[in-house]
Design goal:
This protein has 390 residues and is an alpha+beta fold. The protein has seven helices and 28 strands. Helix 1 crosses helix 6 (295-314) and helix 3 packs parallel to helix 6. It is elongated. The chain binds adenosine monophosphate (AMP) and magnesium ion (MG). Adenosine monophosphate is lined by residues 179, 181, 183-184, 196, 198-201, 245-249, 251, 292-295. Residues 179, 181, 183-184, 196, 198-201, 245-249, 251, 292-295 line the site of adenosine monophosphate.
Length: 390
């Protein structure tokens, strides 16, 4: 009943929808969200013809003979309604003020000499200089932002600039974490004999959030079926997918297997290391992915089986594996696809520590997983490999 990594990844992916529905959020809450649909501009930007400089709005035709002195008819500032420029005059204008009717150019203040009621202009100008035309940036009805853009500050800026207050974004996948193990204690509490800190719940939550999901709960259960069932039901009630950790291998007290096999769960080996024992169950229509408990196994399972699905549903770019060259030689057990922890250096990718799936500090030092195909048993220094960015 051992499955290949590809087959298990396929079985997991098949339990998720093609798309999540959209939801509307305020632009003020849209940072980092992914647009569900194209946004077209409801306005021209600039909205109206206006001055790019503090200076004097004039007719270029009045500057044919220079130097010249023009009487200053009025002053117009940003926020004023457009003035009208009398022939043969100048209007003092501030940046962003609407260009007066009749004016076609702006002479920057630094190129003028003002003397109370007149302004002296030394040089001629072409029509349109220092004038911002309506629609020069974007026209009304034109595409402003395409679907699938991950909203950053600059996207918030343009949405605000055209007066859009709400946008349609992809709903986030709701993910719940449920860890198991009598030995586990949350950070901040003292460790008793035989106890260790629970890292998988927090780690999976961080991994899910980093890949565009919303974490709805991070819970823990002791290794008894009744407690696990209660915690699982609570997690299922508010999640589109539940990740469990621990309790899936062949020892005693394997509470996840014991609970979920009777509920139709698939609990077998996937031909990989770390992360061999895996479980997959659909409970009340919700996929439950059961990862083994060793911290490296849990995170590698997430990388291999969950991350691609989460990213697809979040509308985030797929992360393809990349070619790299080994800076150390490497051994790998036959028949298992290995995901070694690696670190990119200028000499290539170095192995970080051994294959032990409890070595979480080593994983924190790594920046890639080295993907060693199942038929490969050893690779020399300099061999070409594929790596997955962590
Ligand atoms: P299990 O799969 O439950 O047999 O756990 C395998 C190993 O992973 C054991 O050494 C556990 O103590 C450890 N482990 C299980 N769950 C966690 C967790 N949430 N955080 C840290 N270590 C864990
Ligand atoms: Mg356990």
């Amino acid at each position: 009943m051992t499955r290949s990594v590809a087959d298990h990844a396929h079985a997991v992916a098949a339990l998720f929808p093609d798309d999540l529905t959209a939801e509307t959020v305020a632009v003020t809450a849209a940072l980092g969200r992914v647009l569900a649909a194209d946004v077209t501009s409801p306005l021209d930007l600039p909205v109206f013809r206006n001055s790019q400089m503090d200076g004097y709005a004039v007719r270029a035709a009045d500057l044919v003979t220079v130097p010249t002195e023009l009487p200053v008819a009025s002053v117009t500032a940003a926020g004023d309604a457009p003035a009208t420029l009398p022939p043969g005059h100048a209007i003092k204008i501030m940046t962003g003020a609407p260009l007066p009717d009749g004016a076609d150019t702006v002479v920057p203040v630094e190129d003028t000499k003002a003397d109370g009621s007149t302004v002296r202009i030394e040089h001629g100008r072409s029509p349109g200089e220092f004038v911002r035309d309506p629609g020069a940036d974007v026209h009304r009805g034109e595409l402003l932002l395409p679907a699938d853009v991950t909203i950053a500050a600059r996207h918030v800026a343009v949405l605000a600039a055209v007066g859009i207050g709400d946008v349609s974004v992809r709903r986030k996948l709701r993910v719940a974490m449920l860890t198991t193990g009598a030995e586990l204690v949350p950070a901040g509490e003292p460790l008793g004999p035989g106890q260790i800190y629970n890292s998988n719940g927090i780690a999976l939550a961080a991994a899910a959030e980093a890949n565009g999901a919303e974490v709805t709960s991070v819970a823990h259960s002791t290794d008894d079926v009744a407690t696990f069932t209660t915690r699982l039901d609570a997690a299922l009630a508010q999640a589109d997918v539940v990740f469990t950790s621990g309790g899936v291998s062949m020892g005693d007290f394997e509470v996840v297997r014991e609970t979920l096999i009777p509920r139709g769960g698939w609990f077998h080996h996937v031909a990989m290391q770390p992360g061999g024992p895996q479980g997959l169950t659909v409970v009340d229509g919700v996929p439950v992915l059961s990862f083994p408990g060793n911290p490296v196994s849990t995170l590698v399972s997430f990388e291999v089986f969950a991350r691609p699905v989460l990213r697809r549903l979040a509308g985030l770019p797929t992360l393809e594996s990349q070619p790299a060259r080994l800076a150390s030689d490497l051994r790998s057990p036959p028949g298992k696809r290995q995901f070694h922890r690696g670190l990119r250096t200028e000499n290539g990718v170095e192995l970080v520590s051994g294959p032990g799936s409890h070595l979480i500090a080593a994983m924190a030092r790594a920046d890639v997983l080295i993907d060693v195909p199942s038929q490969v048993t050893e690779l020399p220094i300099g061999a070409d490999v594929q790596v997955w960015e962590l």
